[in-house]
Write a structure and sequence with these properties.
The protein is an alpha+beta fold. It has 1 helix and 2 strands.
């Protein structure tokens, strides 16, 4: 079995190496995120159109006296324009 140098200098050298690798990973991750965001932004088309709410059903599931009422709401809306739905 290989003997590992456990001197203070060797430990500090390994810690600096690990810290450098961590910084590199973070930089690469940020660069990829920025690249992905630019690609997504360039491929995205914005569409603006009016819509009408055609259904609103609210069902309470927690009506505690010590907090606001919690509800689940089912909503349907229809729109017409560049897209139909």
């Amino acid at each position: 079995m290989k003997k590992v140098d456990m001197s203070e200098q060797a430990i500090l050298r390994r810690l600096r190496t690990v810290d450098g690798l961590r910084e590199l990973c973070i930089s690469l991750m940020k660069a990829k995120k920025e690249s992905d965001e630019k690609k997504h932004k360039n491929n995205m088309k914005n569409i603006t159109m009016p819509f009408v709410v055609t259904l609103w059903e609210a069902e309470n599931y927690d009506e505690s006296t010590f907090s606001p009422t919690l509800s689940e709401v089912k909503i349907k809306k229809s729109f017409d324009g560049e897209m139909k739905g």
